[in-house]
Structure formats: structure tokens, C-alpha cells
Amino acid sequence: MADDPQEPAAEPAKSPISAFSDPTYRTGVVELLGVLALGEITAFERLAEDAKMAPTMADKAELSSMATVEFGHYVSLRDRLVELGADPYAAMEPFEESFERFHRNTAPSDWLESLVKAYVGDGLAADFYREIATYLDPDTRELIMSALADSGQSEFAVERVRTAIEAEPRSGGRLALWGRRLMGEALSQAQLVAAEHDGLTAVLVGGADRPGMDLAGIGRMFARLTENHAKRMASLGLAS
Amino acid sequence: MADDPQEPAAEPAKSPISAFSDPTYRTGVVELLGVLALGEITAFERLAEDAKMAPTMADKAELSSMATVEFGHYVSLRDRLVELGADPYAAMEPFEESFERFHRNTAPSDWLESLVKAYVGDGLAADFYREIATYLDPDTRELIMSALADSGQSEFAVERVRTAIEAEPRSGGRLALWGRRLMGEALSQAQLVAAEHDGLTAVLVGGADRPGMDLAGIGRMFARLTENHAKRMASLGLAS
């Protein structure tokens, strides 16, 4: 990679009052909070569902606990939409199909696949939203950053997956493929979402008086996302 | 009913230190916390599962929110077991089959049945545990009481079910039968659990220096449980 993937992403965005006086910006933020909120409640559902595959009650409780953290994030995002005078359910609705498609195409077939998905998927989503957040007004940015705080269970997933691979090294190959499929599906769904929602894209590329990413910047962002994904796979003991 | 079902249940139990010096008492409390903790995490699972049947995203969020409240209760009960030096998973394990059987026999077939189950089942469990809690040391009692605090969503269930019955009065008959079935299953599972776990029963009936319920007291407790169940059914607009 020619560009440094660790470069800081952007200069701070403008104050909330002036930012929201731009209707394009407001629309974009409502779309963004809608997609985030739906992502969180969908993550809650999937983690609660995947918890059923847990081999022990302790493992089930860990995944369920991750699920409840995601639900808490959902609540703050939904409340923020209400504060902005938007209908939170109307804001989420346009993204339902994409999330459904993503989860249908990445339904884990066993407990280890669930863990990898929880860890890798959560990490990737968090990185992506953090990138976007740098272009937002300080209030929205702060809310998103706190909604993305690690649910604290990453260590659990890493430990469990590493132990499982040590016990049965052959599973490493299968899980590495699984990680690649998760990344591929996430990117292709993200692309579809961006293509269908101009408001979201407008937030990202900025406006006359708002900073944004140019095409090269978007390329560098993807380089950073890929690099962080590779680090997560490595911490699981998996090739990416 | 000859006896007043609203009678106060018992005189306060002894202090924690002397209570726990009785090994029978300690065993009983560990069993009790085990059954409560398992009940809460199972409730979390079922509510998260039933939330999928919600007709709208707002409804789904309400049931998911009830689920996360149950999970929080689970965490405090589990932590208390650890404090008492017990293995929380070993304490829960003996009750897994009963809860599985209960939920298998009462799997809601639609959204309204889910709501009735959430409201009626939660209320019944809370009443029962509250009855038992009066025979416990103050610390354990306080923990149980706070774990049983209403998840605050009862109003939601009541409102939704009443509205649905007004819109389609015929569904009232079906839901009334459903409520009776829930009560019947709960009582028969509770009976099995009590019969199989002497420690639990010992807490209830007391000991040489601990107050407890005699047979007549147990009868009156069931009268109170049934009466409260009927009140909940009535608040849903259903015959019991």
C-alpha cells in the first residue's frame, strides 16, 4: 500500500447548529443514525440467536451479554433520532433488506463461526462508523463513538477461538475462509447501501462548506478497514 | 376462598450470618438462586426469540428491551452465587430440563400469544419468588426483590393485547385458553421442580430455628398466586 493506512481521517466538522441548518446534512445524519440503529438491533437479534449454539451456559451468557450491550447502543441511537425530530422506525426501514441479506448470507453454522462473526463483524462495523463519524458534528460524533465502545467481550471471543484452533488446527483453514466471506459480504452490502442512499454518501463526501472525503480518501479508508480486519483475524490466529 | 389470599406471608427471617451457618439453608439458597438465574436467562432467550414475531420494529424493540432487563437480573443472581462460593452453572444445570420442557410446551404461535406469555409468565414467576423470598435472609431477599422489579413493559403488553382484542373480539377466547395453559404448565413444572429438589423445599418449609410454611400456608400461597394471575388476565381483558 502506497498510502499510510493509519493517517488521521479528517479535520473536525462544524458546530451542530450550523451543520443541521443544511437540509442535506440533516437527511444524511438521519439516514446514518437509521442504519446504525438497525445494525445494532439486528446484531442484538443475531447474537441472541447464535447464543443458542453455545456449548456451555457460561459461553451462552457471554454472547447474550454482547447482545444486550448492542441493544443498549440501539436505544441511544433511536433516542437521538427522536431528538432530531425524525421517526426512528421510518429511518431504519430502508436498510432492513440489506441487513437481512447480510445475515442470511452469513448465518454461522456452528459456535466457532458465531464467535468469529461476532468479533470480526462487530470490529469491522465499528471501524467503518468511526471513519464516518469524523465528518459529523461533535454531538452526533460523540454519540456514535460511545455507541461503538467495545462491548468488552472481544477478549472472550479471541480466547475461545484460539483455544479451539490449538485443539483442532484443521478448523483454522475453515475459519479463515469464513472470515474472508464475512468481509466480502460486508463490503458488498455496504456498497449497495451507499449506492441507494444519496444522503449517506453526501455526508461522506462533504459539501460546499463541509469537509469530506474525495475518491482517494475513500480508497485510503478502505485500506485502513482492510488492515484492521487483517489484524483482528491475526489476533484470532487466522490468515486473512 | 375461605382464607384471605392477601395475608402477609411470613415473619422476617434470621440474619445472613446465622442463616448461612445452617448447611441445609445454604444448599437451599444456592438451589433457589440457581433456578432463578436459569429462569432469567431462559426468559431472555425466549423473549429475544419471540421478538422476531413482532409486527413492527417498535414492537420488536419493546420485547427485546424486556429481554435485556431479564438478562440484567440474570447477571446479579449469577454474581450472588459466585459471592456465596457456588459454581453458578452447576447451580443452574439441574433445572435446565424443566425450563426447556416449560418453554417447549408453551411456545407461542403468534405475536399476541408471545405478549400474553411475557406478561402473565413474568408476573407469575415474580409473585412466586416474592413469596419464597420472605423466608430468606435479608441480603438474599433484597437481591431477589430487585431482580424481580417489573421490567416496566407490562403496560406495553396490556395495551397491545387489549387493542388487539377490541379489534378482533374472537381472539379473546383463544388467548384466555392460552393464559390457562400457561398457568397449568407453570404449576406442573413448579411441582416437579419442588419434588426433585429437597433443598428448595427445605427453605420453604423452614427448620427447627427457621420460620417456614406449613401445608395450610402453602395452600394459601397458591390461592394468592391464582388470584393475582386472575387479576393479570382481567387487566388484559381476558377471562381466567
Question: What do you see in this structure?
Answer:
2 copies of one chain form a homodimer. By secondary structure, chain A is mainly α. Chain A has one domain: Up-down Bundle (Ferritin), CATH 1.20.1260.10. Chain A is about 75% helix and about 0% strand. Chain A contains 11 helices and no strands. In chain A, helix 2 packs across helix 10 and helix 6 packs antiparallel against helix 8. Chains A and B meet through helix 2 and helix 3 of A and helix 2 and helix 3 of B.
Keywords:
homodimer; 240 residues; mainly alpha; Ferritin; 74% helix; globular
The quaternary structure here is homodimer
**Mean pLDDT figure of chain A:** 86
Helix content of chain A: over 70%
- The poorly predicted ranges of chain A are 1-16
The structural domain count of chain A equals 1
Q: What CATH first level of chain A would be assigned?
A: Mainly Alpha
Q: What is the makeup of the main sheet of chain A? A: none
Query: CATH homologous superfamily name of chain A?
Result: Ferritin, core subunit, four-helix bundle
Per DSSP, what share of the residues of chain A sits in E-state strands of 2 or more residues? under 5%
- Largest interface, per-chain counts? A-B, 24 and 24 residues
Structural class label of chain A = mainly alpha
* Cα Rg of chain A: 18 Å
Principal-axes geometry of chain A comes out as: globular
Give the SSE string of chain A: HHHHHHHHHHH
- CATH level 3 topology of chain A: Ferritin
InterPro entries (chains A, B): Ferritin-like (IPR012347), Ferritin-like_SF (IPR009078), Ferritin_actino (IPR059125)
Protein name (chains A, B): Ferritin-like domain-containing protein
Organism (chains A, B): Solicola gregarius
Pfam families (chains A, B): MiaE_2
